[in-house]
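User: Teach me something about this protein's shape.
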Amino acid sequence: MEAFEIIASVLGSLSELSTADWAFEQQVMPHINAVTKHMQLQYSALGNTKIEDGAYTLGNVFMRYGRYEQAMELYERALAGYEKALGVDHPGTLTTVNNMALVFDSQGQYEKALGLYERALAGYEKALGVDHPDTLATVDNMASVFNSQGQYEEALGLYERTLAGLEKALGVDHPDTLTTLNNMAMVFGRQGQYEKALGLYERALAGYEKALGVDHPYTLATVNNMALVFGNQGQYEKALGLYERALAGYEKALGVDHPQTLTTVDNMAMVFHSQGQYEKALGLYQRALAGREKALGVDHPGTLTTVNNMALVFGDQGQYEKAVELYERALAGSEKALGVDHPSTLTTVNNMALVFDSQGQYEKALGLYERALAGKEKALGVDHPDTLATVNNMALVFDSQGQYEKALGLYERALAGEEKALGVDHPDTLTTVNNMALVFDNQGQYEKALGLYERALAGKEKALGVDHPDTLATVNNMAVVFHRQGQYEKALELYERALARREKALGIDHPHTQDTLHDLINLHQSTGQTEQAQSLQARLHAPKSPRN
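Assistant: First, the predicted structure itself:
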């Protein structure tokens, strides 16, 4: 067992934030696999505490590489040894319990994760006190599970407890305190409360810069998270500026192929995707994919996330075969690494359905949506935002099939759930309002459609701003209704607003901008304004999309 102890000892001294240490870890992975297998064969005959420490350390390594089953097996062995040697409530024992919960959290087994966190928390409170940093770290981890489950108020309550305790125990500018601020900001971001999120990120960023420096990975992670908010707000240039700062810092501090560096590359690609700059997006995704395959492996969840994201781009480009091929790879890998009912697996199932929907293969799409919905209801709950997103997508299919009552029934379910979980003015709620309006528009119930569009527009302008792409989609949809009603002046005003602002925000070649051009040309043609229609024709570069 000497080789095992040596490798475990060396690995225990490494930092995942060090490029050299990360590279070394990859180089010795074959040896880690070998000694772990050997250790598992002889483990029961030994009673050496060093073995427990080694098993714990190797569990952490496998956890980082997304090898959750192996990590859990090692943690279980470490736990059994620690319980015998140290006791069930010793802090060292509880640290292993905490990490086992992290594995279940990563696997989407949230109830199992919470059960272990509750055990760890009770033990820490007894052994260390309610305000000890280790106790509060477990509270923070529990909050993360509730966040993943869409139980945002429960998450915020736990984060508030953690924050108050850490501020008292460590100080307002301690990195652990700032990490909790960052985590709270993530919850507000999911709730669509972007200004609150940015306020907390700004506080965390200022603290990290002061305590750790402008190029420390923790500082850069907050820069990255702020960029995510600006991306969600449609402020793409601000987002890209922050991503560029984060990327330059990560490349300097961690190296060009470190997983955190590649996460920022992946996020930048998402911005270009949103802008309709598909080739730029694919170039960055290809860099992220090559790096993640090298650093993490071809079936690591992070690698498969990039595969999924690339497929989304090909789907939007209408390259459906390429999209399906990538989704099939992502799905097979996710099922193997995470399980058939993991939320990430089900997201890929949902996204494959989007492709079949776009191809008009509605039965295939519905079959996949039904699988995704059943899995999400089981894993996340019937009112989780991700569950409701799939409900919304199924409604889109029924709308396309002309099954308007089925579509409306699903939209009503989605809307009620989103209003409860996210609030009446959350962007996801308003997207459902917009989609319900589309059904009434298709049914020729124009007044009902306009009433819903007006609600969606007012909410989006408030939550996202007047120039956000989602806001402009509703503006364009309202124009379509006025066009169909023969209210050409109102339609013209809204089309021109949508065109000018889409061109500014997304560029003339973005599919949504091109859609508005098509609509405006049709309006001019239907009103006999041939010259205006012809002047716009030269700016057309793409066919009309099936949906805005």
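Now, about its shape. Confidence is low (pLDDT under 50) at residues 43-47. The chain has 27 helices and no strands. If you'd like, I can walk through any region in more detail.
User: That's plenty for now, thanks!
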